[in-house]
Design brief:
By secondary structure, this protein is an alpha/beta fold. The chain has 2 domains: 198 residues, NAD(P)-binding Rossmann-like Domain (Rossmann fold, 3-Layer(aba) Sandwich); 91 residues, UDP-galactose 4-epimerase, domain 1, CATH 3.90.25. It contains 10 helices and 13 strands. The strands form 4 sheets. Strands 3-2-1-4-5-6-11 form a 7-stranded parallel sheet, with helices on both faces. Strands 7-10 form a two-stranded parallel ribbon. A two-stranded parallel ribbon has the order 8-13. It starts with a strand and ends in a 6-residue tail after the last helix. 45% of the residues are buried. The structure holds NADP nicotinamide-adenine-dinucleotide phosphate and guanosine-5'-diphosphate-alpha-D-mannose (GDD).
Length: 324
């Protein structure tokens, strides 16, 4: 039974990846950081099947000890300060976790067992002010946020450890992917959660920033499959993972409010608090390399994704649940 270590297992992707790897027959070890309140809600349903270990991307000793103790065959590095907006108010912290954290982990692998296969969660945010449409593996980076800059560092240090030490290090350049488990601060979940609240008479307003930004939005469950496929390849490489479709925030609003027969113009208020100092205007990926090399393609369409998220938020609120 192969062993996989997931950093960031309590996050959206970590929870889907853990489920997927368990189905593939892996022993799954998840690294969690110390918090004053337990935040295992996304993995509560599989908590008995995974092994959780305490560690932090800021603490290299903890990373070395985890690798020595659990001896993973594969490591999926999903841990990050992942919210772009926060990266302007906490740029140094974002760099420590999202950029230097990658080096800490790569060097722990180099020290303990350089044969471990490594996946780095790189991001379409690296393309930023895009140099090419659609974006592919060879498109130059032009990050537009401290988060994007940190991810560029994480990407290149992954490539560097591959080239310097011959390690099996792969960078997955994933475009936005969403799900009912998406954090409430991200625009898709913020919208679907408000749609459900408004539909059920629990809210009457949704405050947003830039409605013109365009993103290539896919389903997280599809994207974790691509991560695993990358580490099954004989040779490490970099891959774009995307749907190839782009939609504006306004189009997301159309789909989400329209699904429950509401008109978003009656509820949405633009609020300068949610505008960003520098914006990424357009993302759309070309995942043809992942298609031919990995046999990967997305299964969930844009409309299906939006409906899935609205349905899940409606169901949760009707059941009296609070948003996770
Ligand atoms: P997420 O829901 O924000 O999860 C981030 C995870 O990182 C959480 O488990 C968090 O733990 C953990 N973490 C944060 N700081 C840490 C630290 N210092 N030490 C250890 N763990 C730490 O993010 P996601 O959407 O699942 O994304 C997963 C990864 O893919 C991230 O690296 C993200 O930047 C990248 N990515 C995401 C997308 C996307 O559209 N979702 C696209 C491209 C790339 P807590 O629960 O304790 O906070
Ligand atoms: N969060 C948020 N809140 N975004 C808003 C709002 C709002 O009220 N109003 C408009 N937006 C716009 C943002 O300005 C941005 O252009 C777009 O909606 C998407 O914002 P987010 O959902 O926060 O995602 P992101 O694209 O900045 O970052 C996500 O995707 C990256 C991949 O491209 C995150 O998951 C990153 O971790 C990931 O790397």
């Amino acid at each position: 039974m192969p062993t996989a270590l997931i950093t960031g297992i309590t996050g959206q992707d970590g929870s889907y990846l853990a489920e997927f790897l368990l189905q593939q027959g892996y022993r799954v070890v998840g690294m969690v950081r110390r918090t004053s309140t337990v935040n295992f809600h996304r993995i509560a349903h599989i908590q008995d099947e995974v092994e959780l270990v305490s560690g932090d991307m800021l603490d290299q000793i903890s990373l070395v000890h985890i690798l020595e103790e659990y001896r993973p065959d594969e490591i999926y590095n999903l841990a990050a300060q992942s919210f772009v907006q926060t990266s302007w108010s906490q740029p140094v912290f974002t760099g420590e976790v999202t950029a230097l954290g990658v080096t800490r982990l790569l060097d722990a692998i180099r020290i303990v067992d350089p044969a471990i296969r490594f996946y780095q969660a790189s991001s379409s945010e690296m393309f930023g002010k895009v140099r090419e449409v659609p974006q592919r593996e060879t498109t130059p980076f032009y990050p537009r946020s401290p988060y994007g800059v940190a991810k560029v560092y994480g990407h290149w240090i992954t490539v560097n450890y591959r080239e310097s030490y011959g390690m099996h290090c792969t960078s997955g350049i994933l475009f936005n992917h969403e799900s009912p488990r998406r954090g409430l601060e991200f625009v898709t979940r913020k919208i679907t959660h408000h749609v459900a609240q408004i539909k059920l008479g629990m809210a009457d307003e949704l405050r947003l920033g830039n409605l013109d930004a365009r993103r290539d939005w896919g389903f997280a469950g599809d994207y974790v499959r691509a991560m695993w496929l990358m580490l099954q390849q004989e040779t490490p490489d970099d891959y774009v993972v995307a749907t190839g479709e782009t939609h504006s925030v306004a189009e997301f609003l159309d789909e989400a409010f329209g699904y429950v027969d509401l008109d978003w113009h009656d509820y949405v208020v633009q609020d300068p608090r949610y505008m960003r100092p520098a914006e990424v205007d357009l993302l759309v990926g070309d995942a043809s390399k992942a298609g031919h090399a990995l046999g990967w393609e997305p299964n969930v369409s844009f409309a299906e994704l939006v409906h899935m998220m609205v349905d899940a938020d409606l169901e949760m609120l009707r059941d009296g649940g609070t948003a996770l």
